[in-house]
Design goal:
Layout (H helix, E strand, L loop, with lengths): L12 E3 L3 E2 L1 E2 L4 H10 L4 E10 L13 E2 L9 E10 L6 H10 L5 E7 L34 E7 L3 H13 L5 E6 L5 H14 L5 E5 L6
Parallel strand pairs: 1-4, 2-4, 4-6, 6-7, 7-8, 8-9, 9-10
Antiparallel strand pairs: 3-5
Length: 216
């Protein structure tokens, strides 16, 4: 079955099914999602859900491949929202790949999610493929038009902070960064995380923090 889209010069919002970051090459599910993206030239807001892999543990897969590099183009985007189902894995490489294709975005949202409880969640084993390729840590990326970053449900793993730190360096014109933490983060942990994030920031950036406080 073939579905054809007419001209949509002013598409306001687009969301696709989830994409797997790692798995067998040429995965049919990812291929169908990427084919959908190729139908659009521009969109105001694009929501993209990224999973490390299926099953949830990369360690359970045989020779997984990095699949996000199969995405070679994105529509012209004004606002990008990335929903990252991390499960302790890094999405630095995937985020870098996507942002490098659309350096003109004005607004970026990062929504962290995990199937694990934050209290027991840890980063994956050393040498995990999720940290590959490592060029996102060293190559230059300048997001000159990005002015607003919103980070939701940050759990504070080493991988999460590594990505957040890079965002501050990439977003050279950012004006506002809003951060909310996972509900399991205690007040003392939140204070520590706030100080750490402020260490990445610059004086001209307005950084806002929101901490969940359960009703007593």
């Amino acid at each position: 079955m073939t579905v054809k889209f007419g001209e949509m010069e002013h598409l306001e919002w687009l969301a696709t099914p989830f994409l797997l970051a790692y798995g067998p090459p040429g995965l049919a599910h990812n291929r169908h999602c990427l084919r959908l993206l190729q139908q659009f030239e521009a969109v105001q807001t694009f929501n993209l859900v990224l999973l490390a892999c299926l099953p949830a543990n990369i360690e359970d897969m045989d020779h997984p491949h990095y699949l996000i590099e199969e995405m070679v183009r994105l529509p012209d985007i004004r606002s990008l929202n990335l929903f990252l189902f991390t499960n302790g894995h890094s999405f630095g490489a995937s985020s870098f790949h996507l942002l490098r294709m659309r350096t003109g975005i004005r607004k970026l949202g990062l929504v962290f999610d995990s199937c694990k409880d934050v209290e027991v969640a840890t980063t994956c084993a050393s040498g995990c493929i999720c940290d590959q390729p490592t060029n996102w840590k060293t190559e230059e990326l300048v997001l000159r038009r990005l002015q607003d970053i919103e980070i939701q449900f940050l759990s504070g793993t080493a991988h999460d902070f590594a990505l957040v730190e890079q965002l501050f360096s990439w977003a050279t014109a950012v004006k506002t960064v809003t951060v909310s933490f996972n509900r399991s983060i205690t007040g003392s942990m939140a204070n520590e995380f706030c100080q750490r994030i402020l260490g990445f920031s610059r004086p001209e950036i307005c950084v806002k923090f929101y901490v969940y406080r359960p009703h007593k």
